[in-house]
Amino acid sequence: xxxxxxxxxxxxxxxxxxxxxxxxxxxxxxxxxxxxxxxxxxxxxxxxxxxxxxxxxxxxxxxxxxxxxxxxxxxxxxxxxxxxxxxxxxxxxxxxxxxxxxxxxxxxxxxxxxxxxxxxxxxxxxxxxxxxxxxxxxxxxxxxxxxxxxxxxxxxxxxxxxxxxxxxxxxxxxxxxxxxxxxxxxxxxxxxxxxxxxxxxxxxxxxxxxxxxxxxxxxxxxxxxxxxxxxxxxxxxxxxxxxxxxxxxxxxxxxxxxxxxxxxxxxxxxxxxxxxxxxxxxxxxxxxxxxxxxxxxxxxxxxxxxxxxxxxxxxxxxxxxxxxxxxxxxxxxxxxxxxx
Length: 340
Hints:
Elements: E1 26-29, E2 45-50, H1 56-72, E3 75-80, H2 87-100, E4 104-107, H3 116-124, E5 128-132, E6 144-147, H4 150-165, E7 172-176, H5 182-195, E8 204-209, H6 214-227, E9 233-236, H7 239-251, E10 259-264, H8 267-274, E11 280-284, H9 286-303, E12 309-312, E13 315-318, H10 331-337
Parallel strand pairs: 2-3, 2-4, 4-5, 5-6, 6-12, 7-8, 7-9, 9-10, 10-11
Antiparallel strand pairs: 1-3, 11-13
Helix pairs in contact: 1-9, 4-5, 6-7, 7-8, 8-10
């Protein structure tokens, strides 16, 4: 599915926005003066609510929504939590968008469980709700989920790492996200599956949470090196954590003899793969998630057809050091399709 991402490579101009409180709320597209779900003049209103408005992943997601809205003539309103984890802000955004007459809302939940009551209220009023990137809990609380198959993303780099070790005994450090976060657990479990081991396997010599943060990734790697100085494989939840791990390894003179693999495919991370700091990453496509989401809302508004279930928006292993048996693209492809 990632190949369809080629249609969205053209650079986009971000809509100017301001954020002085917990939320950012803007609008773009045709028919901004309408007041009903069709904008009062046939224009479909679509809402996009991201976790924050600063993370490059969500900036790219917004670009995808803007491009799709412009193409279809829809009116797009966007909102974001003030910080990662701001459920209250997202609840307020849903309420505001429903009051403004949106036909559908696309949301990356800050709290997969706590957001459910607000989503249920929106759906009762006939609003299509599609979760992007992160599922609600339960997943069917939203009408549909458009996201990376995070289990597959982890499995790809697990298979890669196993093949790259070429039979050498592995001493693995996993630098994870945080307890109870579905994306982090799926990637972690996928890595173990791809490597051919189970939770609790003795080859995993250290596990630390990083929150996906570079500084915390460095600290986590320093802790793992104290606990297991002979670590030779590092799985990371994302590339900032991977770069933190690389910094810690380099300080110990270990950066060239430890295999680092990751997930995300942002431009900085993909450049780090090209530069040899990270061996491989599983690239995902936030722009495509949002673009498909906008198209689904427009289809619902015009034809009454609801999106449902899970839609896989694709994942690609990116590396310049390919291994036999694991399909991959090089960093030229990765940089052409990256985000951030």
